[in-house]
Design goal:
Blueprint lengths: L4 E5 L10 H16 L5 E6 L2 E6 L6 H8 L7 E8 L4 H15 L6 E8 L8 H16 L5 E2 L6 E7 L3 E4 L3 E2 L11 E5 L5 H10 L4 E8 L6 H18 L2 E7 L1 H10 L5 H19 L4 E3 L12 H8 L7 E2 L7 H10 L3 H4 L21 H8 L6 H10 L2 E5 L1
Parallel strand pairs: 5-6, 5-7, 10-11, 10-13, 11-12, 13-14
Antiparallel strand pairs: 1-3, 1-4, 2-3, 4-8, 4-9, 7-8, 12-15
Helix pairs in contact: 3-4, 5-6, 7-8, 7-13, 8-9
Length: about 400
């Protein structure tokens, strides 16, 4: 069956009360943006539902489904059969055609569920449930179709509005809230597994994402930078366009390596990364910093280390959505969003090339600040130079 109309279901948006229209409008705008390259689509909202209608019969169905199911706020996409002039007879006929076309093997249990938004329709929802269930049993009980209202294999939905919409399949979406409804953040994006997942998870809460990548040529290759761009592009299919700030960080790292104790290198380096992320966040009107850290995963992610690193940020919060996850849980999400295979490519980032053999795991703020005093007069011009020479790339 060729489908040109899709009902878009959402979950959490439905709890927003009087502000729900704001979330619905933002979601519709995002869908229009994502579908525009695929043809002409009419995206409209009615109470409790959003409809996507292909204006032409010629379009890439699979591409449409792929894009719609990567939009935060969408909990499900339902391809629907439309009855233009709904009546008991026309809906009954269309429903029979739908089941016959959609299911080759009909030996399964089903349940009817009718929603009658048009209160002028002659039968109410319960009466239509009974009527349409009877229609399907008359047509297909000989093929094994039977009713199970408690645990059906197929739930057949009919919505009666100005038109009638018939569907039984819900293609899952990512859920969450539409991007653009909850401010803006900047994510520390590396080439690893964790940071793309963290970026995805905060974007899922409706947050517009910028990102910063700390580059260290010639110690990191051009392929490492391209890997990060690819990861950001994959995440942008869910999160929307991402403005990536590429910072040449190597001079700062070399100064830290030259002046500071080597077991403290990672802590001090990350403190400067967080300072720069905060400066970029302020320039870009971001309200928070996002990282992919998880307690205990590496030496710089002990509770003591995280506390010392956090102190480098003065005015905005740092969000760590992976903080309580183990590695396998993070990998599972990375595989789900298609970043895993790119993340494991063997191109190292700047965090891994200056790691000491025995890094400190329980740093104290007093000791770290004492070590940072050795950078006075050296680090400031390097920091300003790096901040002023940021390369910006738009990923989408």
């Amino acid at each position: 069956m060729n489908y040109r109309v899709f009902i878009i279901k959402y979950a959490e948006i439905g709890t927003k009360g009087k502000n729900r229209y704001v979330f619905e409008d933002t979601l519709c705008k995002r869908m229009r943006q994502r579908l525009k390259p695929l043809g002409n689509f009419n995206v409209k909202r009615e109470y409790g539902r959003i409809f996507v209608i292909a204006e032409s019969e010629e379009f890439d169905y699979d591409a449409v489904i792929d894009r719609l199911t990567r939009i935060f706020g969408v909990s499900g996409v339902c391809p629907v059969k439309v009855v233009e002039e709904p009546s008991v007879e026309s809906i009954s006929e269309a429903l029979t055609e739908y089941i016959d076309s959609e299911y080759g093997e009909k030996s399964f249990s089903f349940k009817m569920h009718v929603r009658r938004n048009d209160k002028t329709f002659p039968l109410n929802s319960m009466e239509m449930d009974a009527k349409l269930g009877e229609v399907l049993l008359d047509a297909f009980s000989k093929d094994g179709l039977h009713v199970d209202v408690h645990n059906p294999k197929v739930k057949v939905e009919v919505e009666i509005r100005d038109k009638a919409y018939i569907y039984s399949k819900v293609i899952p979406g990512p859920g969450g809230l539409p991007v653009g409804t909850n401010g803006k953040a900047i994510s520390l994006l590396s080439g690893g597994i964790d940071s793309p997942v963290a970026t995805y998870m905060i974007a899922k809460r409706g947050v517009i994402m910028d990102a910063v990548y700390f580059n260290a040529p010639p110690y990191t290759s051009e392929r490492a930078k391209e890997k990060v761009k690819k990861l950001g592009t994959i995440v942008s299919q869910y999160a929307g366009p991402i403005k990536l700030h590429i910072v040449n960080f190597i001079d700062i790292q070399l100064a830290i390596y030259d002046k500071c104790p080597h077991d403290e290198l990672t802590i001090i380096m990350k403190r400067f990364m967080f300072r720069m992320a905060e400066d970029i966040a302020k320039m870009e009107d971001c309200q928070c910093i996002v990282t992919g850290e998880s307690i205990g995963q590496v030496s710089s992610q002990t509770t003591q280390s995280l506390s010392v690193i956090n102190e480098a940020v003065n005015d905005i919060p740092v969000f760590r959505p992976l903080i309580g996850m183990d590695k396998q849980e993070i990998i599972d999400i990375s595989e789900k969003i298609d970043t895993y295979e790119t993340s494991i490519l063997p191109y190292e980032d700047c965090c891994t090339i200056f790691v000491a053999k025995h890094p400190v795991t329980k740093p104290t703020l007093e000791q770290i600040k004492k070590s940072e005093e050795k950078l006075a007069g050296v680090i400031e011009p390097l920091y300003e130079k790096a901040l002023n020479e940021i390369e910006v790339v738009y990923l989408k």
